[in-house]
Amino acid sequence: MSVNNRIKYFREIKGITQNQMALDLKVSRQTIVAIEKRKYNPSLELALKLTHYLSISMDELFWLEEDK
Predict the structure, then answer these.
(1) Strand ranges for the chain from DSSP E
(2) Dist. CA 35–CA 31, nearest whole Å
């Protein structure tokens, strides 16, 4: 299974840049890029920070997709 996310979608709707999100969450911009491109799964702590930051629920932001 792979973890999918809608971080970029919600970030862009709210008009937040990758740089601003990274600064606010105290991570590197490269971390945000890697999560958005599904090259890196965030820790539970960072996932919770992302949901709080974007004011959405965990299941709106992340979901599991079965590998084919």
Answers:
(1) 2-5, 62-65
(2) 6
| Number of domains the chain is built from | 1
Q: Which domain holds residue 8?
A: 2-65
Does pTM surpass 0.85? Answer: yes
Digitized pLDDT (tens) for each residue of the chain, 68 residues in all: 789 999 999 999 999 999 999 999 999 999 999 999 999 999 999 999 999 999 999 999 999 988 66
Cβ 18 vs Cβ 11: under 8 Å? yes
Greatest CA span in the chain, whole angstroms? 36
